[in-house]
């Protein structure tokens, strides 16, 4: 069993057709402008965030503070860090 929509009923009045065409183009234009504005805000926000991060890292290097990447590099790479739970071997886990 398949569901199909009935064919759309188009108006025969030419003024209604022109108006619906213009209304559709106006909605499409508003959506396009909104998308461009959102894209611009995201681009400007990304540039500001990247610049602020680079300025913060340059300031940390100038004061002699070790950035997080250098601090992580000082750790032994063979050591696993994390939270562990000791499972008692006498008790079986119920699944």
Please, could you describe this protein's structure?
It is flat and about 80 Å long. By secondary structure, it is mainly alpha-helical. It contains 2 helices and no strands. It has a domain at 32-63. It has helices at 14-63, 68-73. Helix content is 59%, strand content 0%.
Give unreliable regions as ranges: none
Number of helices: 2
Give the distance, in angstroms, between the N- and C-terminal Cα atoms: 42 Å
Count of DSSP strands: 0
Question: Mean pLDDT, nearest integer?
Answer: 84
Order of helices and strands: HH
Q: Which descriptors apply to this entry?
A:
single chain; mainly alpha; 95 residues; 2 helices
